[in-house]
Specification:
- Helix 2 (about 30-55) runs antiparallel to helix 3 (about 60-85).
- The chain has seven helices and no strands.
- The longest helix is centred in the C-terminal third of the chain and has 26 residues, at about 170-195.
- By secondary structure, the chain is mainly α.
- It has one domain (about 25-190).
- Helix content is about 75%, strand content about 0%.
């Protein structure tokens, strides 16, 4: 079977190859990192405050996490629709990164379903574990050396779950989001801007 490629598709393929070779970042490359980073960071801080500084001792935290998750999914879908309508140049790196984090989300849902009741104490460490793995792969993919420090901080937080009380688990998660999502998200957007992809 013969493949016929028109001029426009040829230019798109060449543009993708050049972008991949240069390590170019697509406009808004860090937006999903930032969205989820800030949402989980704020929810983790709220969780910490509720269980440590209020009389309710964490009542209502389930609603906060449910609300954050629903809001994050809604905004992610809206951003995904916008990206689908105006894809620009979709790099190989961007495509692989999307699949890595989609896999993370599948594992996250499985953890949330499986770890309930007494096993719920392990939710934070389990999420941090698979998150650190996904972040490590993304770091290798984006070839941003300083992000290995972010991965190292996530590993330290993972080990600290074994030594701190449960009431401090949300603070560890907030730190993980700060170094693993928020800082890299801003950096990816900055790099895209410098490369003129904004």
């Amino acid at each position: 079977m013969e493949n016929n490629i028109n001029e426009q598709e040829s230019l798109r393929i060449i543009s993708e190859m050049i972008s991949t070779a240069r390590g170019n970042m697509k406009k808004g490359a860090g937006k999903h990192f930032l969205l989820w980073g800030y949402l989980i960071f704020l929810a983790s801080i709220a969780h910490f405050v509720l269980i440590n500084f209020t009389a309710s001792r964490g009542e209502g935290i389930g609603l906060i996490w449910l609300g954050v998750t629903a809001f994050g999914i809604l905004i992610s879908v809206i951003m995904g629709i916008r990206d689908y309508r105006d894809p620009g140049v979709v790099t190989y790196i961007g495509s692989i990164s999307l699949r890595i984090w989609a896999g993370f989300m599948v594992c996250l849902v499985a953890i949330m379903i499986l770890l309930r009741g007494e096993a719920g104490w392990y939710t934070y460490p389990a999420i941090t574990f698979i998150y650190t793995y996904a972040l490590y792969i993304s770091t290798a993919l984006y070839k941003i050396r300083w992000m290995y420090i972010s991965v190292a901080v996530c590993v330290v937080c993972l080990l600290l779950y074994n030594t701190v009380s449960f009431s401090y688990y949300p603070l560890l998660m907030a730190l993980v989001m700060l170094v693993g999502n928020i800082l890299p998200g801003h950096y990816l957007n900055y790099k895209a801007k410098v490369q003129g992809n904004v």
